[in-house]
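Need a sequence for this fold. Nothing fancy.
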């Protein structure tokens, strides 16, 4: 029972006592974004985790992100508010099936989205995030055959944009799949002139209407640079918090699902994290991410390749 405890003050006290850094993804609740030392996209958060001199990383995101932090910073204690914060893309790609798929295509390299398990990273050649995928893909020789997993929408988008055939793993993000083209077009008609920014995890029915397609940090940058004062945002709506902080005079509208509002596009995994659970994680240093050393080193290879090629 946490009643009577000033959770925010306790987080502040424990953050100093533990020499902890709090990292948060843009899809976290506003209160978690506000107290984090750093808020960013998947690539930026990986870089922060690799660089930090804190003793403890408290990772407010989903577990594949916290595992990435542990792979890159093995000597730090990495804790998460809720170990059940998974990802539908990770779930779509069991390591043994991915291994069999790779073995069936020995002449292909595996270019793999960071939204996957540590085991799948260990079975991959190069990891990409949505902000680094285009730069990395352009460095791979044109005659090199590629398996892209687990997000078929990001893979399909890259494949169309660069006119490059890839074997796509059939995974999807349940959040970005939930946007409705019909409702989006209605919203667009109600807001004539407002551009649409979409994450490449969206299906083509959404991405094809977008004026800008990119990662969370890319969408945020687009919001800052666009000429108009209204933007339709087709990604998880919690990112709108950062837009409203940075651009109080502009209007941001979350793209709708089939029910006409954007609440169905809240990531249920990201939403498991709360202030109370973050407090408990800092207090108890649990739940803690641990990765067997052989597996960690195998996964680190493909992640290091990303960090090298993304810069
Ligand atoms: P980025 O923040 O890297 O764009 O990733 C989005 C996402 O869905 C993370 O789960
Ligand atoms: Fe996974 Fe989609 Fe949630 Fe991101 S938004 S963590 S891709 S389910």
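Here you go.
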């Amino acid at each position: 029972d946490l009643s009577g405890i000033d959770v925010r003050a306790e987080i502040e006290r424990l953050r100093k006592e533990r020499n902890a850094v709090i990292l948060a993804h843009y899809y976290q609740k506003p209160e978690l974004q506000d107290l984090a030392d750093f808020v960013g996209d998947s690539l930026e958060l990986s870089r922060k985790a690799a660089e930090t001199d804190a003793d403890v990383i408290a990772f407010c995101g989903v577990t594949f992100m916290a595992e990435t932090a542990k792979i890159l910073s093995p000597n730090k204690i990495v804790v998460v508010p809720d170990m059940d914060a998974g990802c539908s893309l990770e779930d779509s790609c069991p390591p043994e099936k991915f291994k069999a798929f790779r073995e069936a295509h020995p002449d292909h390299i595996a270019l793999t989205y960071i939204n996957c398990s540590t085991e799948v990273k260990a079975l991959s050649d190069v990891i990409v995030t949505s902000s680094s995928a285009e730069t990395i893909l352009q460095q791979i020789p044109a005659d090199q055959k590629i398996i892209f997993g687990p997000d078929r929408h990001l893979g399909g988008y890259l494949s169309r944009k660069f006119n490059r055939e890839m074997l796509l793993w059939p995974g999807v993000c349940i959040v970005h799949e939930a946007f409705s083209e019909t409702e989006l077009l209605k919203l667009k008609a109600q807001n004539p002139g407002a551009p649409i920014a979409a994450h490449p995890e969206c299906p083509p029915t959404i991405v094809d209407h977008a004026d800008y397609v990119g990662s969370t940090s890319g969408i945020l940058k687009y919001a800052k640079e666009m000429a108009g004062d209204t933007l339709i945002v087709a990604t998880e709506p919690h990112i709108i918090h950062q837009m409203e902080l940075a651009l109080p005079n502009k209007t941001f509208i979350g793209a709708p699902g089939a029910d006409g509002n954007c609440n169905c596009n809240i990531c249920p995994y990201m939403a498991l994290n709360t202030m109370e659970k973050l407090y408990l994680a800092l207090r108890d240093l649990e739940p803690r991410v641990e990765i067997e050393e052989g597996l960690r080193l195998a996964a680190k290879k493909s992640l290091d390749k990303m960090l090298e090629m993304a810069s």
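For context: Residues 89-173+298-310 form a domain with the Rossmann fold fold (CATH 3.40.50.10800).
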